[in-house]
Design goal:
565 residues; alpha/beta; 5-stranded parallel β-sheet; 17 helices; globular; binds adenosine-5'-triphosphate; binds magnesium ion
Amino acid sequence: AKPTGRYLHKDHQLWAPLTLADFEAINRCEKSLPKNFNFAGDVLDQWSQKEKTGERPANPALWWVNGKGDEVKWSFEELGFLSRKAANVLTKPCGLKRGDRVAVILPRIPEWWLINVACMRTGLVFMPGTTQLRAKDILYRLRASKAKCIVASEEVVPAVESIVSECPDLKTKLLVSPCSQNGWLSFQELFQSTSAEHSCVETGSQEPMAIYFTSGTTGSPKMAQHSQSSLGIGYTLCGRYWLDLKSSDIIWNISDTGWIKAAIGSVFSSWLQGACVFVHRMAQFDTDTFLDTLTTYPITTLCSAPTVYRMLVQKDLKRYKFKKLRHCLTGGEPLNPEVLEQWKAQTGLELYEGYGQTEVGIICANQKGQEIKSGSMGKAVLPYDVQIIDENGNILPPGKEGEIALRLKSTRPFCFFSEYVDNPEKTAATVRGDFYVTGDRGVMDSDGYFWFVGRADDVIISSGYRIGPFEVESALIEHPAVAESAVVSSPDPIRGEVVKAFVVLSAPFKSSNPEKLTLALQDHVKKSTAPYSYPRKVEFVPELPKTITGKIKRNVLRDHEWGRT
Ligand code: ATP
Ligand code: MG
């Protein structure tokens, strides 16, 4: 296979293929981006070569199980062969051309990885979405993106059919299923009869590669567009130092296919390092299946959202002996220090938190080898220069709370999203002075560690104090009665706004006296954190509103408190 991204080798006047060392150097700003880059050609096909020469252990590239005895294991060579066939399906019968946008709404099945790589090979713009999307969500995505093609599994078909007449740009519907469906091309059928001869398109390194929709925690999801290199090269250091991956590792990253976390943990960071991506089909998260999987398979590396760890520590984890697990990660939401401590006490393993966004990937992380400060998101990840800034774009000193921002000028880091598609106003609104503002508030300490306070909109101002919900939630969860909580502002005639906690009780406390428990929790928070931040109002609820990614939607609770719809 011919690599597309090459440097002109100074001494020999020959084109040399890019190496992992080159990718690292690019992330450290020691080398410039090559003109062309394609993740399939320059990374995956290179690992396939290394498999042949024995420079990579005989570890699959993808290892998929469904808990019902079915299993798929592909080497990089097989992934290459199969994805070339998939590429031919997309360009020939589907009639797609370089630059066309393809919405891919599939569960965790191997075809998701095939279509993803096939899009890279053909220069199509991959747009994943979760199968939990409803008809109106799919309509929003198809119309906003002007997608030419939708690739979906059968459970998504009725929703697509109900809105497809409102999507004039959509030309092709491709079904991934053993069954057939009127009006849909069958991926399986076409795949069987398609050739595996395909040459990878020489994509520009800044050419669009994927559009990821943000989680929509605070409103309609935004379409963050990423380039071949922002995703394909930008996760090199994250894979090596945060995920701590080598080609002999097996990483299980539990993320829905629709979110950038799937790209970070189950495609780019892992395959850049040549590691094996482990996938469990698991339609619904279930702690028993989860723990069984860790005891059955030689998974070395685990990455999951904090909400999963919050559920797991409710179990008696000492009863489980994990087969090969050695490195655990979390991100996407703040991790309460209490959960980290419990995980550590019960499993003997640290929990390495990372902080990131769909727009810019991983910004801060507790990298392997660095001391972990419980409750901190770790230090800035290269090439980002992360600072805390004020409302005028000035850098604040360590210890001062402000907005978490990334330096954009003089050169915009290559691993940034290129834009919110068709939304120049929203794109421009992310820039303040020399910085990109994340919309999150935090503090940096004098050692360069970042501490999350809350989303800028979630911060509560009560009697002149600024209160971050995360601090209060972390205090609450230390109490044995609290399984989970969400802290928001609530109107108050005297103070303007006060702190209100919505609390989900842990099993043993479900039938406790609510008045007594409220007092006990308030008392606990007053002792554990700044007394003024204790929740003056407490409401016990069976569950919290969450995004499909499992993030707490504080804005829904807050709007309800303030009588907004
Ligand atoms: P939207 O932008 O559509 O409202 P979203 O911001 O939740 O949704 P994502 O890009 O998936 O969409 O999430 C990024 C956000 O998640 C961050 O801006 C931050 O608020 C939160 N986040 C991610 N990791 C962490 C972490 N380790 N600690 C605290 N918050 C985190
Ligand atoms: Mg966001």
